[in-house]
Queue: 3 jobs
Job 1
Amino acid sequence: MKTLIREKRTEKNMTQEELSQALQVSRQTIISLEKGKYKPSLVLAHKLSQIFECSIEDLFIFEGDENIQGLH
Amino acid sequence: MKTLIREKRTEKNMTQEELSQALQVSRQTIISLEKGKYKPSLVLAHKLSQIFECSIEDLFIFEGDENIQGLH
DNA sequence: AATATATGTAAAGTAACCTTGACATGCGAT
DNA sequence: ATCGCATGTCAAGGTTACTTTACATATATT
């Protein structure tokens, strides 16, 4: 899975610290998400999409078996 | 958080077993999701939205602090 | 009455998400 | 040169998602 979190964040001129506070998570969580260390929970993905004013599907790119078989 | 998984599934005349196979998860996972016992991972939510041909935001209703502060 | 199908519960284990805290690096400003 | 800010690493621990297995219930069919 790929994510556009960093791109969207810098477009908005936000620091990791600011984003973490808006989401009410630790800054470490932002770092890990941006670096692809792990995938956000559904709720966190939703909050990110609210902040960046886009859909969840716009923020994340699902690859391979992250899609259902036969699609994409 | 509320989910429309059960409604969408029955609309499609699918059993829990069929849905679980399409998603490649256990039937127990479907039961737990439908009953609201826990929230799906982002990838699972995405797969569900593919099967039901809708957006993730259409499948799940976020409440209270599952939205960012000041919104909704 | 017995069998099949769909749905449900419970328990115990593994893996992933997320946290806190401490410390390191690069860079621009004073 | 050093101070502050933004970013990063590492490690340990808690919570939650998800699995497997086994068993229970309701309904419909034969």
Job 2
Amino acid sequence: MSTPTFKRLPRAVREQQMLDAAVKVFSRRGFHAASMDEIADEAGISKPMVYAYLGSKEELFTACLHQEGTRLMEAIVGAVVPDLPFDEQLWRGLRAFFRFVGAHRDGWAVLYRQARGERPFADDLAAMRSRIIEVVAGMLDRGLVAQGREVRAAELEVMAYALVGAAESLADWLADHPDADPDGMATRMMNFGWTGAGSMLAGHQWRPPPAAD
Amino acid sequence: MSTPTFKRLPRAVREQQMLDAAVKVFSRRGFHAASMDEIADEAGISKPMVYAYLGSKEELFTACLHQEGTRLMEAIVGAVVPDLPFDEQLWRGLRAFFRFVGAHRDGWAVLYRQARGERPFADDLAAMRSRIIEVVAGMLDRGLVAQGREVRAAELEVMAYALVGAAESLADWLADHPDADPDGMATRMMNFGWTGAGSMLAGHQWRPPPAAD
Amino acid sequence: MSTPTFKRLPRAVREQQMLDAAVKVFSRRGFHAASMDEIADEAGISKPMVYAYLGSKEELFTACLHQEGTRLMEAIVGAVVPDLPFDEQLWRGLRAFFRFVGAHRDGWAVLYRQARGERPFADDLAAMRSRIIEVVAGMLDRGLVAQGREVRAAELEVMAYALVGAAESLADWLADHPDADPDGMATRMMNFGWTGAGSMLAGHQWRPPPAAD
Amino acid sequence: MSTPTFKRLPRAVREQQMLDAAVKVFSRRGFHAASMDEIADEAGISKPMVYAYLGSKEELFTACLHQEGTRLMEAIVGAVVPDLPFDEQLWRGLRAFFRFVGAHRDGWAVLYRQARGERPFADDLAAMRSRIIEVVAGMLDRGLVAQGREVRAAELEVMAYALVGAAESLADWLADHPDADPDGMATRMMNFGWTGAGSMLAGHQWRPPPAAD
DNA sequence: AATGAATGAGTCTTCATTCAT
DNA sequence: GATGAATGAAGACTCATTCAT
């Protein structure tokens, strides 16, 4: 009577099983092509349970999105030690990012490949991405200030977009190549982004040729 | 006033109408959520014609993919004048790319946001992307050779991936901001990519701090 | 002006082409699975022509049915020479029947395999079959009378049904075995039917065992 | 009054209901003209259940075919008592056959009228028919051996084809005449087939007239 | 006379979602 | 708490049939 028999798993555990199953299925099928049946099967649970615990398919997908997004953010934020020189911060953030993608390929696929095109979730996703962009832009800004230089916020944001896009592109490649080394990817990305950003920060600038039409 | 009876158009015209409508609908709904009914409506034609001319939904999506992919490639390739210094080539290619995205937002959405996650099309898309990556890698290689330096092909490819990813990211931002200036985006991207690539090509290299764990 | 140019084939020829094409297609697909498109293609003619000449799909199928049915009847009737002893008449009729099936496999398939199950045509078919049954029953009757014996009409009809069924069964087998010899089949059938009917006519009769439950 | 809630029946029951409904509908409409909607209605159940339990329309038809085919075979085989004189065996088999057809008119229609013409099922059907043909041929063979005579296997098979065809023809007639007496039909068929086969087995043989052209 | 273009209507099939036990 | 049974709604696809040229 007092202590419940734990034969029937506690709610939290069940929910986690379901979410993991859902991420797996969504990652390989996409939102629409994934069926609640397949997800329930994958979780080894009956369909009504899924509804009871996590609500509609849309809510389920959103839950997956938030779980993976949060994990990713936490991985990155947890890796960035303040008070370090900011190139090292960038490096740590990137390394955490690539490590995460390497270790959570399914989650990455849901975030990057599936959520992007599905109307109802694109906004959620954009919001998460914005947070990352801002973080990166913030890093760059602090880097500039440290050098006594200054750039318009809009420019910073664009640069951050480019950096993040490049990192995502490499991460996506990583997700398809299980044997690739995440840390190596992070190093390459750092090289690319940092020297690029670095030389920009150093005031180097490329200008379009005059006769542009 | 004079003639326009909008019926009994010749096949080629109708096909183009349908493709355009399909791109529009696929771009805003995604492959699964788009219905053939909506596409037919958008094209101002009945569903059976769509099937008669373009085949199944999958074939239709593929047709959209190839049309937009080809247009994009042609826009870029047509803009790159050989015999120019290679930074200027890169610049022209990028400018053409951003202009294309600015002018064909729907097509871009189909290519970049929708096709990526849908299993049956991901391969087609990856093939197109590979062609671009190779072109970019080729440009970089020629740039290196011109400087008398050399980099492993694998490294080149990774760099190309990063560059393309960065450009795509900015392009995607552009697609969501109708007022943004494509040429300006191209300039920013050039700045970012070129100074980055430039400083790498110049031999600058970033190395991870020793105590990496 | 006076004599029409026969470039455009005369109506009768066209109609025959269409009917032949229709028989071919109906025989291999069945009524429902056959499409007017396929029939038009097979006839090398556009669909509206088919409608103009032969009317709806149902009318077309009926036309096929009647054509093949009539051909079959004419083949049989044309082969039966009156005034011959009636076993020889039966033989000639059977031989003509098997020859027809061997030479018009498609027509046979339409008659025997396709029309039977399709509600709107079963009646037409049954009517044709009835005519044959009656002919056969008539033959048997004349045979009996010649022997000074007599059998109830109902019994005769049943016997005719059995004979016709047996012949159809063999014919159907023949239709699937292009190398089989129609005359040989006719002989076998004659053997079977004639000795059977013959011994019945001769007054032999089998009776069920008494303890039937 | 007391209990009958007609809902939430166990799977096996529902499956049988569906099969019965399907046989009914297929028998009167044919495979193509039958709609899954009508079948579901007839079964008093919603369409998705039909798909869930019995699969596609084709699978459903096949299931009907096998059910009825099996029932028929079992009825016949169950009626044939070994160790009886073989004419009595034949008699019992025939009687069971006609009784079955009389009692399962729909099943018979599916087997004999509908399945024959539909390409994907003709093979299944032919296989069942072959089994019966072989059984009959076996009976005939044993009859011959008992008489010390012998006939080529091919001839036996043809004779079996004829016998089965005759029986089918009568059975089909029976299916359309609800008031006819199955046992009477069996007797007539026995008479026909047995005296026919009997006189053949006795060595009587009909030969075509010499001047055949 | 002849046909490419066009469609209304209908069918199979699937899926998210909910009862009843 | 847990699930087998059940369905409304919707979407892909096809086809007989008819215009307009």
Job 3
Amino acid sequence: MGSMNEVARLAGVSIATVSRVLNNNGNVNEATRVKILKAIKELKYQPSRVAKRLRSKGVSSNLFGVLVPDIENPFYVDVLRGIEELAYKNNSAIIMCNYGQDERKEKFYLEILQSESIDGLIAAPAHEDDVLLKKMVTDGLPVVCVDRGLSGIDVDVVLVDNAAGAFNAVDYLAKSGYRRIAYISGMPGIPSSLLREKGYRDALAANQIPFDNRLVKFGNSKHHSGVVLCRELLEMENPPDAIFTGNNLITLGALETINAMKLRIPEDVAILGFDDMYWANSLNPSLSAVRQPAYEIGKRAVELLIQRIQDPERSCIQMALNTELMKRGSA
Amino acid sequence: MGSMNEVARLAGVSIATVSRVLNNNGNVNEATRVKILKAIKELKYQPSRVAKRLRSKGVSSNLFGVLVPDIENPFYVDVLRGIEELAYKNNSAIIMCNYGQDERKEKFYLEILQSESIDGLIAAPAHEDDVLLKKMVTDGLPVVCVDRGLSGIDVDVVLVDNAAGAFNAVDYLAKSGYRRIAYISGMPGIPSSLLREKGYRDALAANQIPFDNRLVKFGNSKHHSGVVLCRELLEMENPPDAIFTGNNLITLGALETINAMKLRIPEDVAILGFDDMYWANSLNPSLSAVRQPAYEIGKRAVELLIQRIQDPERSCIQMALNTELMKRGSA
DNA sequence: TTTTAACGTGAAATCGTTTACATTGCGTTG
DNA sequence: CAACGCAATGTAAACGATTTCACGTTAAAA
């Protein structure tokens, strides 16, 4: 854990030369290189990323920030896994920031990330017009948004065609004969919720099913809101025969209620929602779902981020990946 | 985003004085303090955590490392949440390292963490005798282990009484009348697997059930091994009537097989295993499980870490939290 | 043989802090 | 009134790297 100074002293050269062999730039005589390498090994020297980052900010110091709304949601865990894996391949560490939909906390983390001089940031912002994040983008920090974009500003985005995914799902329900299809939305206001609702409404219209606003409920994207909103729906005098859920936490919550009410799936009520889970087959019946390629979203985001770090001028990319309707037992 | 220099210049003082007001140490005249505060506000100054960390290493620079084996496992996600939440309260960011049971990757991350001059580390090491991690501990890095300890060395540990948890679970199965109780273990060799197996065997003995080594299978703690090992068990000529699983991923895998084989739970085969999940009630039937207070493990670990950072000499604490047997529908 | 270029190296500035030490001025005290 | 303590502030070194510039040496080109 010595410093460059100690290495230099031991090898009998200056720190500049040590730096040169470490970074493989500049010319250095083979003999001295060997001497220095030996000294490095002997001292178990490891360069301080902190010092490096301080000295040359903006240059790659191999530290990314990741800002996610809710790590309890398996979708974001998968995104995170994709990010982590590719960051690792790129010799980078990540500072993980989980803001739990709390804007104060988001702000806190954004400030920290800035102050940590990260190379770049992958973020799922709380809002489309997150002022602080926007400012960081315009100030030149490389940023890639995932799952949600940023309005009125050019920024790289990786997400999914939410409207199409929802449309296909609800269309499938309709084609399967369901007529009273409910929608339990996640956080109202965030783009994905809006677009999924649009897909839902369009699919109803396409199948000549009248829209009934008593059949759509708005929650907060958490497990608990799935539980209670599903109950509200199923206790109506004329309950839905199928439920389309806005995300996986809500799905799980709804499932809990359905089981508690001892209803059969899909005979009494079918269920299908956004976000597949690797254990969808562990459920009984197995769970149908709209699959987002979460892991891939994470990977792509890192790719874009690295590109942008290398070339801050390249024009922004909006990458929309496809969803896949996983037809299984629950709908 | 100016530097202390700019603040100092604008306020007409030296950087030392600025530092003093920022850190609230040393004496500074009220009038100058106000001047400086105004300059800070005006320049939107934010101190560089990087510079601070470089200058004063070992002193609190509010950055922790977290090293987990598998972020896909909801248990570690919960631990992580606990850590994150408390770290946040402590104004700290965390570098998340997910080594996926890969020792090369673990080594890579440990080196990075060292090189990032973190204040302290919370880790679930790959082995009980993880040499690199041990060396970091003896070198003076504040470390708290979670879920798994480190052998032959004094270090703070937060975990759960695995043997007791397993014993209670299997004892409960036995008392419920099950006689052929299988065990699907996670990664062999890691302490938690060993202790859970011990609890399993002790419970069998306590209930006069002969141990049958064909009923214990060893996997790798992942979903897939639950799937295949469960199938092996259920296709025996004399299959088990209950399965005790070593962790939640295995449970989920086993569930998948049981469903695929169209067996009824718990009539044909009961299932109960380690690690509760917040959506245990979303399963049909609801899943019985040994609950580890994962979130609390994370919180406690941060508490211990902060204590150790403040007082590197305090003697080590081994904290064993209690498990809780969640009796639900599956066993 | 002289000019030029390339090579190999070191000195020193720099990044943005913290902090030990020095300095100044002023009120107390013997 | 000299000596002292203390409050308020500044100076400069350090943390550990990168990088620019300069300098000497040697080989190639003219």
